[in-house]
Amino acid sequence: MKQKKQNALTVLLGYAGSHRRLTVLGLGLSAVSMVCSMIPYLCIWLAARDLIAVAPDWTQARSVTDYGWIAFAFAVGGILIYFLGLMCTHLAAFRTAANIRKQGMAHVMQAPLGYFDANASGLIRSRLDAAAADTETLLAHNLADIVGTVTLFIAMLVLMFVFDWRMGAACLLAAVISILAMCSMMGGKNAALMAEYQAAQDRMTKSGTEYVRGIPVVKIFQQTVYSFKAFQQAIEDYSAKAEHYQGDVCRVPQSINLTFTEGAFLFLVPVVLFLAPGALASGNFAGFVTNFAFYAVFSAIISTALAKIMFAASGMMLAGTALGRIQPVMDAPTLAVPEHPQTPKDNRVVFRDVSFTYDGAQSPALSHVSFTAEPGETVALVGPSGGGKTTAASLIPRFWDADTGTVEVGGVDVRQIDPHVLMDQVAFVFQNNRLFKASILENVRAARPDASREQVLAALEAAQCGDILEKLPQGLDTVIGTEGTYLSGGEAQRIALARAILKDAPIVVLDEATAFADPENEALIQKAFARLTKDRTVIMIAHRLSTVVGADKILVLEGGRVTEQGTHEELIAAGGLYTRMWADYNRAIQWKMESG
Ligand code: ADP
Ligand code: MG
């Protein structure tokens, strides 16, 4: 527990970087301002003491106005210093939060692309946002409050001991009880509850992202039930955890702790009164009265200070967990960049005995996969869902790196190719293609930022998107996803194909690119395909077997292994899984034609 907290603080200082000095300066100023703000109260006490000493001859009490001026000076000084301190801590906080976002993003940019699958990206953002925001509050307010209040507390205690050690001892005792009660409230079970609460929040963000991303699928296949249920479940789980967390803080034994935190100082009243007879007996009337006055001041200050500390401590806890939660983001694996990059000689793609297991998975997603796609060949990957098709395709542009074996492009291990060069070699059309909320022009141009309008138009033409452009109000400049400009799955697919065509890469990877096609779109998509894949090395994943019949080579992937390999005719002749899939596929087509 303690170890963890310390780590969070070191981590925090790490993010503060060069702004560490500014942070410390801000905290120091806030401590000084607290001491300054105590002086006016001290002046009251000193004035009272002086008055009692000269009573009843008030004419000698000129010093009272002097105390007034001193109090005034320190009040003004204290406020100015406090303001300066706040400026420093705010500036440092703002810059540290910016550092967290920058470092997080910079790190994540070096992670393998597979790290950004649909599930992770929303989560990464929400975690970085939370860490940045919580840290900002912590540095701007909470830490300064804690440092200032603790300084004030210690100064008051010292003064108490100087005036009357018994009062000092009583205050110290009350402070210790109060702090212990506060610590037990913040630590242990509550920290665990808070972690659970934040984990539930994560799950909600994640399934919310999934749900929103899944809307195109929902539209076409009416698969509302599953994703919505998962989302709803996550919301309910989150609400339950939140209520549990809130509820537990308010119930026993938390309420007992709270009572002790605030009530410990009440016991100073009897201490003051018990000490009175002794003071009076020894003729120290002045001592008694001034102690009493000091106590009144002390308790007033302490109650606001305690409230501030409690508030600040919960801020510390929040920031601590938030920083802990971005650790996995900061620890994300980074893609090893070759020291002496080599240039691929052509667009041949070779898998040599490739095996790959996802982090934390029980069984490998690919085991001992070998095949060659000669330049200009089309290799189709087919097989049951979960067979490893997408995983195999993902290894070509290094979305992940193989555990053993090698993936080669143009005779060079992909790990020895400059990542930018490699990305230029491969056009990837995703299973669920991703269009940005931007104009069609910008969406297509994402593949090649320097492309002219004419080139973009030509690519759209080649991808059979003419009809889409015609019906959109601003043509090429229409922003997708705004009112009246939603695209159907098949239309979005063709835009994604245009993007791949514009990229003009020698290797094309198509992952179930026909999955979204509706019947009237399919012919157009096939045409767009033909344009995209002409004279290129193509790795095509398809569950519509009609699209793979003409492939130069078909690989059947089952449980991560290549179980069959050959042309359509060879596989049909072999009579294995492919033959059964082909028969099923034809039955389905037959059924569709008969039923309508
Ligand atoms: P296919 O594309 O043939 O349907 P995949 O390559 O997507 O199959 O999946 C192969 C196996 O790897 C499956 O068991 C799947 O559950 C698992 N898998 C896929 N993606 C991930 C991932 N990002 N993390 C962990 N496991 C994954
Ligand atoms: Mg897949």
From TrEMBL:
Topological category with respect to the lipid bilayer: Multi-pass membrane protein
Domain ABC transmembrane type-1: 24-238
InterPro entries: AAA+_ATPase, ABC1_TM_dom, ABC1_TM_sf, ABC_transporter-like_ATP-bd, ABC_transporter-like_CS, P-loop_NTPase, Type_1_exporter
TM helices/strands, residue ranges: 21-47, 67-93, 143-161, 167-187, 264-286, 292-311
SMART domains named in the record: AAA
Signal peptide: none
Subcellular location: Cell membrane
Residue intervals of the ABC transporter domain: 349-584
Protein name: ABC transporter ATP-binding protein
